[in-house]
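Priority: medium. Attachment 1 of 2:
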């Protein structure tokens, strides 16, 4: 005879006590594990680790103002702690490594991929392919990644990332990945133009193409001369699911990004599980106003004096957030995301 008795947990974050009764082995006491922590109505399923903010390039469209002079890079110990926190969360399917340029710290990247795979998660990598000076060289860089079971290898390949029209390194990296049988994708960002609506169904998903989004460096470098919209029209956040994010980015400072430079909290101060469980978007001083009234709502609720018009929602959002930096440094972090 076997029987399973489940008892009510003491609180939503407590393990569910269980008594398992077997005829041969008596009564066993255990737990059914923690309840799945949720953000809003959804469960966090993807984390993108910003392994470093350092990059070989200083692209005009970069959301995080990455470049050769940036230093913020995970240590092995920090990666280990983050991966333990991801395991504790218990809801993740996939972990991405990106940056900055993650291949600049190749041994760290390799060890990170190994640790994530050992913890049982799928791994993806995003790179600009600067290291693939030929397909043959690319094979040497990527063979260990193939052996560890990387399931998505995305290469940024567009006018922003190429050194000149003869630069074929992204293409070599992609060819090497394909030869090794690693699932491969290309991230191609088009030159600046205005797209009034977010692609249907893509809110909260990683950016894999299309026009430049005017966040970060793009808001400062690529908006000149573009058509503007009255600020009163900019009443929603079209691209991120701030209420119930399914994926977030984490940087080496510990910031958990809801959108680049907009932090849910810091995992070096409070574990990811607790941050996710405690996240109340409406009470967040930046996400709350954005949810209630979009970028113009953010500016209005905080009494900011803004220009009459902006290229799009992200352009106004970035400008308003930069003005709010001194008031909300914990939530508008890291400062590098604002070009500082
Ligand atoms: S409106 Fe603001 S929060 Fe929303 S995607 Fe644009 S920059 Fe991010």
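Attachment 2 of 2:
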């Amino acid at each position: 005879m076997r029987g399973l008795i489940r008892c009510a947990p003491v609180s939503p974050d407590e393990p569910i006590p269980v008594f398992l009764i077997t005829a041969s082995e008596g009564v066993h006491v255990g737990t059914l594990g923690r309840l799945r922590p949720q953000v809003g109505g959804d469960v966090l399923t993807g984390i993108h680790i910003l392994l470093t903010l350092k990059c070989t390039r200083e692209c005009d469209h970069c959301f995080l103002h990455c470049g050769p002079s940036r230093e913020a890079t995970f240590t092995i110990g920090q990666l280990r702690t983050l991966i333990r926190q991801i395991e504790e969360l218990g809801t993740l399917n996939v972990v991405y490594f990106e940056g900055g340029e993650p291949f600049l710290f190749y041994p760290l990247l390799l060890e990170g991929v190994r640790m994530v795979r050992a913890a049982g998660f799928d791994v993806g990598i995003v790179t600009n392919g600067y290291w693939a000076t030929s397909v043959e060289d690319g094979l040497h860089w990527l063979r260990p990644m193939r052996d560890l079971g990387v399931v998505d290898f995305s290469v940024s390949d567009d006018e922003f990332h190429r050194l000149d029209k003869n630069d074929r390194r992204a293409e070599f990296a992609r060819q090497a990945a394909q030869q090794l049988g690693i699932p491969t994708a290309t991230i191609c960002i088009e030159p600046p133009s205005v797209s009034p609506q977010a692609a249907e169904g893509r809110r909260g998903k990683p950016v894999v193409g299309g026009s430049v989004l005017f966040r970060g460096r793009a808001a400062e470098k690529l908006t000149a001369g573009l058509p503007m919209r009255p600020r009163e029209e900019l009443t929603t956040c079209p691209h991120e699911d701030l209420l119930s994010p399914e994926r977030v980015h984490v940087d080496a400072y510990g910031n958990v990004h809801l959108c680049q430079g907009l932090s849910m909290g810091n995992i070096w101060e409070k574990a990811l599980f607790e941050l996710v469980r405690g996240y109340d978007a409406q009470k967040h001083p930046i996400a709350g106003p954005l949810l209630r009234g979009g970028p113009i709502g953010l500016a209005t609720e905080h009494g900011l004096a803004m220009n009459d018009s902006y290229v799009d929602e992200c352009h106004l959002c970035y400008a308003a957030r930069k003005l709010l930096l001194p008031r909300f440094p914990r939530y508008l972090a890291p400062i590098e995301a604002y070009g500082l």
